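Researcher: I'm comparing several assemblies side by side, and this is the next one on my list. It has 1094 residues spread over two chains. Same procedure as the others: predict the full complex and return the structure.
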Amino acid sequence: MSRVIAAISTAPAPAGIGMVRLSGDGAVEIASKIFRPRSKTRSLEKTPGYTALYGWVYDADGDIDECVALVFRAPHSYTGEDVVELTCHGGLYLLQRTLRAAIDAGARPAEPGEFTKRAFVNGNLDLTGAEAVMDIIAANGRMAAKTALAAREGALYRKMRGVLDELTTAAANLSAFVDYPDDDIPELQPAALKEILQNARLALGGLLKNYDAGRVVREGIDTVIVGRPNVGKSTLMNLLAGYERSIVTSVAGTTRDIVEDTIRLGDIVLRLADTAGQRETSDEVESIGVRRARERMERAELVLAVFDGAEQLNDDDMALAKAAAGQPSIAVINKADIGININEEYIQNLFKHTVIISAQKGEGLEQLEQAVREVTGVAALNESEPLLATERQRDCAKRCLECVNEAIEALDMGYTLDAVGVSIDGAIGALLELTGERATEAVVDKVFERFCVGK
Amino acid sequence: MKFFAGEYDVAVIGAGHAGIEAALAAARLGCSTVIFTINLDSIGNMPCNPSVGGTAKGHLVREIDALGGEMGLAADANLLQSRMLNRGKGPAVHSLRAQIDRREYSRYMKYRLETTPGLDIVQAEVVGLDRTKQGWRLLTLLEAEYSARAVIIASGTYLKGRIFVGDVSYDSGPDGMFAARTLSQSLERLGIALRRFKTGTPARVLRSSIDFTKTEKQEGEDPVIPFSFETKHRLKNRVDCHITWTSEKTKEVIQKNLHRSPLYGGKIHGIGTRYCPSIEDKIVRFADKERHPVFIEPCGLRTEEMYLQGLSSSLPVDVQLEFLHTVPGLENAKVMRSAYAIEYDCCDPLQLAPTLEFLEIPGLYGAGQFNGTSGYEEAAAQGLVAGINAALKVLGRPPMILDRASSYIGTLIDDLVTKGCTDPYRMMTSRSEYRLILRQDNADERLTPIGREIGLVDDRRWEGFCKRQQEKRAERARLRQTVLPPSKQLNDILVSCETSPAKTGVRLEDLLRRPQLDYKKLEPVDTDRPELDPLVLEQVEVELKYEGYIRRQQSAIEEMRRLENKLLPEQTDYSKITGLRKEAQEKLSKIRPRSIGQASRISGVSPSDISVLIVWLGSRKDDGAEDGRKGGDGDGRDD
């Protein structure tokens, strides 16, 4: 038995496609919870090895992307276990959402080098790569340790630590109460215990809810500005950046490559890329720029699709609108100062969010900011909540929450405190994974710190 | 003049709770065995509390019994009072504790050793231990030389023992025995790192000097549940215990005299146990606490000595008397033996393998307080494991390694040899992550098959066990198949137990699963119930009620055992493995874990270090390298 692990297995770089890989006993079952084949008569679970199915990956919010699911059956796979490879479009946002869905369905985030490790363990790799793999794992481990250390400084860690302390104290109280029945340890009443657990549930729920929005605030949103030539993309970028960054001319096709900058829009950080105008072109250099822009758009977390409000939509506009609308995106109708001739209804039917601005005059930025907040979920973010940093932390917090819920349920059903205690230990253990401590030791230490026990 | 006095397979140094189990196990497995004690009259002595069991410790006694050890039988045979602790707190934490007639217990154990074939008992202080080609040479103070193929050190608090009472200190073993002053040198010569630990015991007072009208009576529980699965006759409670509390005045006296404590005055350097703090420790560390409980326990049927649990101290005798007389009921107490602290040499258990054999010194084993633990039960558990493994080694058989999921014994030993201990280690239920499975009621199911395979479980015990298992299976089937109609009688019971009434027929099994119900409550409607061993009923009920939890812990155990079965070669040079962090290399080289699972529990070894180890192990197997571990994988279980 090996637990199902999942990870984005393609490089986090611009690419046409990206892949999320699941491996372990039950990989196919978990994948089938997030993958729906197009053909209703087929199912992932009945799919033999070396066979692909076409369909969609989805999560609780709906379809994520089109997807090709490739099934490998143990032992005939890279890792020697059951493996499913979900290949989607390359956007990082889509891949992360797919990974998230897999984790929510029961997989756990893979450790650095874990697929390869499993391949080794199952005897599927030859010897030559062993040392190299060990080096990679070690390097990743060092990096992870550094990241973990940095995370300890943060508000998130303090918040998690708070939950952890509460739970450990409760567990220590339970432990002292049972391990030292002769000492007058106050019995932790089920009602009091339940209150502690409910507080933990609330705190963890808050942390998880704010996870995505939180990352957006901290790391910035990978944003790309797209649009056919000369709709005012560079003017918008320069306006947002506050200084002239792109070469702005009125000759269509001036921006031939991708220009990047990090800007603040209110309290939101955008990692902004201005791209070459989207049009069919015969200029070779420009066409490379156009292709890059498309790729960039596909992996962006936010697309600002700019349209010239003064003109009617042309074919390039419509093609672009269709491509952009599938992403988290905002339609930006520019040149409001000149007058609106565009087919607004067409745009609004495609995009959930549309704003009208004048980049030239700097008007409409507030509406744009509000739209960005809504698309990225920042509007719903309670900023006093600390934020979860990585998928791994999220996974730990999630498992902690599951154990807390289970403990509450056990209390409600009238189970004895030893059973409740086991669930609390589970909750503590999940959080302690972040620091590499062990639940049983933490609890025992706490017993002697807090209670006067022993003969 | 030195003379040669005897040749043995196994020699055990010390006849306390660890030494007894070690010697009995080795002899019963067919090894010629000798056990040395400084005083024949202190075999199996209880120099501290006159009781066996307690939370988690009661589990250990049950497990020792299930494997074929002696402690449970001895406790049952000399029992004064018994209680099942933690009733109402859940089956995982039910623990037996019994007051014991300590002199009778000691005589029982001495007689048991005397009548065991293949076992010689020698009163002698072992002063020298040297390696020879065939094994070991032991030298006694009186210049007798013995040879043995394996040696078990179970020296308790005797090794360089030193007693402290206020300003007075002197070399001594516990309870007025001689200390073993010389053996430490031999051990250090062998390369064993020794350190000083400290423990203590309270005063004993004369029963007739206690005013029991000021104390609360604590009676035993009827019927008495025995420790041993083999004790079939009914046991009786013969004595009462009493509880009193320290007063505000006690606190004052102690605070006023703290400077006279050798501990706070800086004379004692040994590390004391968190688990048995002295009364001065408790008052300093928990200054806010108004009072501390004191348990007055009889030491035996034919003695008037009473043990005062909770008042351990190393203060001078005049201060002891002064504070004792501030405790309600003890105002006129006459002290027969004063409280004392004792400091002793013990080893760092990180030097040991899970067999309790020294990693670097083949054929030498440690058990009990010598390994850094506290408590008779912890000692006995280790003695049993060390004795079994020494014998198995001499006999050329694979070792017995109990993993954390098998038992508290396994958990105890894994903690010791993997994490070590910084103060004397006491067992607690919270130390086990698998405690819903490691219950005292099912110790036989977990360990008797192992004991049988090893050869410590005789036919009688084995037949009894098999019969209970058979009954259990039959009862589970009956509960699954019996459907009760939704009668008024049934629903009256259900409603009175605050659980929902039945609308249709309902299986007995499903009724018993409800936390609100039990066998007893269902008795009126469960008319076809057969006469069954209470042990069987208890196991069946607990397993049904906690089925979900048990199943989950079981799957966690399976996952754990996968890593536990990935054995690391004994002679691994961790400094040569690419990618391991330096700290991990050092820890791994020192602790030399047996398996990847054990390695993963070492503090300072990170998940990425473990990944590196797994890959390294994988690549090594590809290489066609042979497993360096002798004696097969796993824990010797046949499940």
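Model: For your comparison table: Chain A is about 45% helix and 15% strand.
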